[in-house]
Amino acid sequence: MEHGLKYEEMDNGVINIESLTLPLLDNDGGIKFSSVQELGAFLKNEREAWQWLRENGHFRAIGVHYFTKVDQLFLQPLSQIVDAWEKSDISRIRSSQTALVEYLTKVYFPSHNRSINRFIEDQSKEMAISLLFILLCGRMDRSFGLGVQELRQLQVQLRGDVREQYELLEPYRLKATLLLEEFFKYGSVGKTDYIPNRILEIDKLRQDAESKFNQANEFAQEAADSFNSWFYDTQTYIENKQQEAEVRADNFSRRVARDVIRKNNKFRHDIEQKYKASIETVNQAEDTYRSRIEMKESVQYWEEKGSTHYKASKRWMVSLFVLVVALMFVPFLIHWIFSIPAQDVGKDPLPASIGTNGILASLGTTPLGVFSTILAVSLMSYLIRFCSKQYSTEHHLFLEAKERKVMLKTYLALMNENKLKELEDRKVALDTLFRPAQTGIFNDISHNVLPSDTIVKIFERQSSRSG
Fold first, then answer.
1. I need a labelling partner for 346 at 20 to 30 A (CA). Which of 246, 262, 316, 371 fits?
2. How far is CA 117 from the centre of its chain?
3. Considering 159, 191, 223, which residue would you say is the last residue of a domain?
4. Are 33 and 22 within 8 A, CB to CB?
5. CA-CA distance, 77 to 81, in Å (whole number)?
6. Residue 393 belongs to a domain
7. d(CA 329, CA 377)
8. Is the residue at 131 inside a domain?
9. How many independent structural domains does the chain possess?
10. What is the DSSP string of 85-118?
11. CA-CA distances (angstroms) from residue 28 to 141, 283, 398, 419?
12. Strand, coil or helix: what is 214?
């Protein structure tokens, strides 16, 4: 007995039921329902197939009774399966399917798609009701298979008209049993009228199939014509769009090429400018480096020269101090010498009358002493003036060396800051830096050019050019 349920559970917990198979064909073959709509359509056809039991006329009461049993035993389980399928309730589907399959193993139910149902439809209503009763009692090849309790359920509420009609159908049930035995044995009854009826039925089905095939063929032809028309229109549309796309692509490529060429030229121009600027910067750096190398010795030279002049000025300062002190005592020494009589020279000790008082008393009184005093003072004054001049010169040269050292460092700083680009700027700085050295303070003060004046001149030139 073919039956089964196939489903798939997604990662998000949603259950997708792919198919359901029930043993509803001849020889307990299975019908595979791929959707709940197919099963619902089968259930609808099954309900319509059993509506003859409820038609007005003879034996309607017992017919309604058996329709209720068909609905209870077969149609309701199918309806439960449809409802559970719509809700994707696998447990309800399995329980309803199990109950239905278990019932079908005991009863060969004459569903509308089985040949036994068509055999019943060919009989009179009395015989059809009797055949249905025999089939609902169980499978004949299994000694009917139903228990006493299940058989009693078929006869529940057989009262009144139902009881009376049940008793009137007693002779038909015997004949129905014989007909079912012959049908299950040979597949037909009487071997005379059943087979022609089936042939006519088959011819009718064939004619219906040919009609449907012709309709399907016409529909397929119309669909093919519609498809060809759609394909031609689509192909034309695609070709037009392709041409438009080619034109747009060509225009776009031309525009991109122009942009690329323009940007490339601009890039090359920028590269050349940066290259020139880099070369200029390197040259300036080289000049600055060489200037620093060359100026380093100059700075060291002026440092040493300043130190030499400073030491010399200190020596001349000491000499000047010594001469000034000596000038104070030389007159007294000379007059003291000239005031000693000749006969007392070499005596030790000298006479007491020779002393300070004697020297003071003899000042200006001896011509030779006066001349010697004037000569000594003049000589000492000349030496003092000479030492003072030398001290002034050395001190001035010391300040000059110190100033030139500061100017050299300032020049190097301006070179490092790239503020001496022009030749004129460098000329101003170098002329001031390498001017002739002056040897005095007082006579050269009007010709001195301070470093601050040079810096001011350079910045004035820079500001005038930038403006």
1. 371
2. 70
3. 191
4. yes
5. 6
6. yes
7. 10
8. yes
9. 2
10. HHTT-HHHHHHHHHHHHHHHHH-----TTSHHHH
11. 13, 105, 132, 109
12. helix
| Structural domain ending residue among the three candidates 166, 191, 216 | 191
Q: Is 88 exposed, middle or buried (0-12, 13-18, 19+ CB in 10 A)?
A: middle
Residue 85 belongs to domain spanning = 4-191
Whether 144 is in a domain gets the answer yes
Widest pairwise Cα distance in the chain: 209
Is 225 a member of any domain? no
Which residue bears the tokens 């001017």?
A: 435
The Cα 89–Cα 325 span in angstroms is 133
Tokens at residue 363, please?
């000042």
CA atoms of 457 and 426, how far apart (whole Å): 11
The Cα–Cα gap between 93 and 77 comes to 10
- What does the alpha-carbon distance between residue 377 and residue 49 come to, in Å, rounded to a whole number? 166
Tokens of 68: 């209720």
Instruction: Please give the span between the terminal C-alpha atoms of the chain, in angstroms, as a whole number.
Output: 108
